[in-house]
Predict the 3D structure of the following.
Amino acid sequence: MNALLLIVALAAPIVYLEGSDFAGGAASLFGAYHHGEGPVNYVYAASTGARSTMSASFQAERSASGLFLYMRARDDDAPRPCKITILLNETILHDGPSGFPDNAWAVRRFAVPDGALKVGDNRLTIRCAEAQGTAGMPPWFMVARAAIAPDGYELRRDLRRDFRVTLDERVSPGLTIPAKAREADGGSARFAFRGMKGWLWKPEQYLAEIPWIARYRMNFLMNCYGSMCDIEHYRWGDPHINRWWEPLPEGKRRAYEKVVAACKKAGITFCFSMNPNICTQRIVRYGSDEDMDLLWQHYAWMQSLGVRWFNISLDDITEGIDASGQARMVNAILRRLRQRDPGAQMIFCPTFYWGDGTGAEQRPYLETLARELDPDVYLFWTGDSVVGRITTAAARTFRRIGGHRLFLWDNYPVNDANPTMHLGPVIGRDPDLHTVIEGYMANPMHSQNEINRIPLYTCADYAYHPDTYDPERSIGEAIAAQTGSREGREALRDLVECYPGMLIWGAASTAVNPVRERFLRIMAMPHGAPVARAYLESLKALARRLDRAFPRSYAAARRTLRADIDALMKMLKSR
């Protein structure tokens, strides 16, 4: 079985293997879950034949010097340690007593000689080197997971394949970032700017979340540019929703003035954002003084409130994709802002805002921005793709081609108003991104802003200390920090495990719904209907537990779960 290849940052594994990636062994006889771990595999004495050997085949795109095989394993409970042989292709990495304890899981590492790992096909083999024994009895040796990685790697569960939440009962509600236990290095933040935006949020949503942003040691909040559209009367996508040339209604202006004031009180930098060229009947004409004046009215209003950070976004547009014209517009607005306040700052979200910038359409566009956009302007960037992995290498290349400082617009845990939730920890962001990018901004879910506090905690944790960020620890803390009720914490834990998020689920889509996908997979199994019914009953029980623990909180999240339960009931009836 080929394992998932994970070639990422320097200290990341070249290959990660779980016990189930090893063919052979005896897991098919006695099960793959033992001693609190799984899936595992294990080998018995040579006299058991095929049960004495297990092997994992995998592809490596590169090799390197200074590699180690890391294994989480345990020995049998016999008085004498079990002898094992470990081979990488034809190279022996270990031959003798295992060195693992017989009463607990432990991680050991074995040096990989230079040249033992091949570019291309490889095979890792583990054999029991004891001559005599019986399957099911000592001598045996058991493996939970393994990885080949550089020095300094820490072998953990791959959350994409085995996501479970461990609550930290020592955490009290209201825990801040960084936790006191992690302030030994002085508690200094790695990203200078750490925050989030809204997603078609109403003013009351911003006001509700500002205290939590402050609690999580974030210092930046940007309104969704869609919030400045007429979301009170039109659905997103309707060309009448974005009438940027009109003054905002007085009531809406007063509401957002309260948001700005609340940010000031909480010590949070508010960034004002608009996108004049999306969902509109009239895009900005870049060479029009009239259009500049009409757009400027909104920025002048915000600046009059003391706002010093601003954004113009031209992402996801279908008209006005002209780098030179866009640069002129952004420069003109920034110039007006700085005439009143020399310290005014601007972030521009370009039309090509993802990837490393080397694409056939991206490069000439970004090179034009590098030449013509004011050098003080930051660029928003979402990572190697719109949703998914974010690497330092891609950030460095994008910044070099775009010629401007970067703000990360992290598209997590956003659901784009789809009927789903993304509640697991943020993962897949390189630990040294802060060496290339100055600002970090999470993108939240649409209506579920309360439950958004759980994944947001992990985003804040990452943004504060990306080099020591641990998603397993962080998600456990995030849940425990919401409530002191044991019943509430356990219900939230189970909800997070139901909706682990598109990053852990492995889907490059904000619309993925793990609850519905898991149900469909169960239904597709032979005789899957009874299991599907049991799964549905567990969701109903979870909904009741959430209602009981949080009768006045997480209403939008509880509605999402109830909607999924209704949808699964219909699927089951139609089957």
In short: The first helix runs from residue 27 to 30.
